[in-house]
Amino acid sequence: MTAITRRRALSVVSTLLGVALLTSTVACGDDDDAAADTKRHLVKSEVERRPAASDAPVEETVAGIRDFAVRLAATQPDGNLVVSPTSIAVAFAMAEAGADDATAAKIAEVFGFPAQPGVHEAMNALTQALDDANIDADEPADQVTVELANAVWGQSGHEFNQPFLDILASDYGTGVETADFADDPSGSREAINAWVADITRDRIPELVPDGMITPQTVVMLVNAIYLKAGWDTPFTEDLTSDQPFHLADGSSVDVPMMNDSSLHTSASTGAGYSAVELPYKGGDLSMTVIVPDEGTSLADFEAGLTGERLAEIVNGLQPVTVDLSLPRWDTKSALDLAEPLSSLGLPIPGGDLSGIAPGAGIGAAVHAANITVDETGTEAAAATAVAGVTSAAPGQTITVKVDRPFLFLIQHRTTGTPLFYGRVADPRG
């Protein structure tokens, strides 16, 4: 696991995903001293991280992740929501590398993954493509940081399968950092949470809760994405004013509403909705806001939404001038993923991940995320832990007033990778 220097800048979009797999089968070393010597070292394949393949099935993988985002949101129909579909997908892709055929097929079906090894080639390619969005500028407001990191912790004394280690190294750039889950669960938890806090700039100070690591824990897989980006065209703070936002129940609340009466961007109006794209600095990343027309509830709009339809909306955006009113918002979500993923076709608890270590399987999954949007840009974080146990035309101006519940999508524009997706039912959180 590579050490990562802590950065303290604000305006962050960050996601983190953790996978914990547990097994009752403990492979011991030759003796206690030998096992103790393995408690803190990196077990990594000698295989090098491979360059991104030009023919990797990135488009298919992204389409699957986008569709997963919409279907996951449909399992959480009420209130504010923010999730990181890419983080969840990357972690489960790493888990799939150690799954048996039946479990791998279920993971692939839920996330729309191409067949192995294509999914790992695609993850390698799209995560490396995110690096191109980085901008190292003299002015902090012009900088864009996109950082993706993978880390794996495993119980010392266990033997991890070589094919799994090879895939971790070649496509995810990591190995297994040994830990003493059995005799020092508290210290192991603190080490993982410290790494998580470092990657997320303290937005997620505690991913692994007390009691999650037990003597049966064999491995923890963690993926983190960090994004810091300001709007390409920031809103003028002096133009922000309190205005009514109309909630789904018919009541209204006053919220700080940002405004730009002549925003040169891309937008579209379709059957029952308006959509506006807000690019971040550098143009590689953007947020798309989708607001249903007056008289169309967000619930009804989402009921007819699919990943393919979401892609059509984003791809249908055209250059235009927009008189945009958009609320600041600050919201968070906390999900137990076991029920929604089970309903989507991946039973939790269940599955077989013995390709990572003997007897491992998926036992539980949780996800937490938060996002703050203001005049300068976006700050957000997400964390997930999965535990496994055994047994319009140019020149035209359109008006878009986002004063009712809406959807948002933060994506990498080149690949279409959905970094964050969610809904805002109430901007107050």
Residue-averaged pLDDT: 84
Give the oligomeric state: single chain
Rounded to an integer in angstroms, the radius of gyration calculated over CA atoms is 22 Å
Number of strands: 17
Largest sheet: 9 strands, mixed
Helical proportion? 10-25%
Number of alpha- plus pi-helical segments: 10
What would you call the shape? globular
Distance between the termini: 36 Å
Content-based structural category: alpha+beta
- Provide the β-strand percentage band: 25-35%
Primary descriptors:
single chain, alpha+beta, 8-stranded mixed sheet, 10 helices, globular
Plain-language structure description:
The protein is α+β, with helices and mostly antiparallel strands and 429 residues long. Helix content is 25%, strand content 34%. Strands 3, 7, 8, 9, 10, 11, 15, 16 and 17 form a nine-stranded mixed beta sheet that branches. Strands 1, 2, 4, 5, 6, 12, 13 and 14 form an eight-stranded mixed beta sheet that branches. The radius of gyration is 22 Å and the shape is globular.
Summarize the structure.
25% of the residues lie in helices and 34% in strands. The chain has helices spanning 32-37, 58-74, 85-96, 101-111, 118-130, 162-172, 185-199, 298-303, 307-315, 338-344, and strands at residues 12-22, 42-43, 81-83, 145-155, 176-179, 217-230, 241-246, 252-270, 273-279, 285-292, 318-327, 329-336, 364-373, 377-388, 397-401, 406-412, 417-424. The strands form 2 sheets. Strands 3, 7, 8, 9, 10, 11, 15, 16 and 17 form a 9-stranded mixed sheet that branches. Strands 1, 2, 4, 5, 6, 12, 13 and 14 form an 8-stranded mixed sheet that branches.
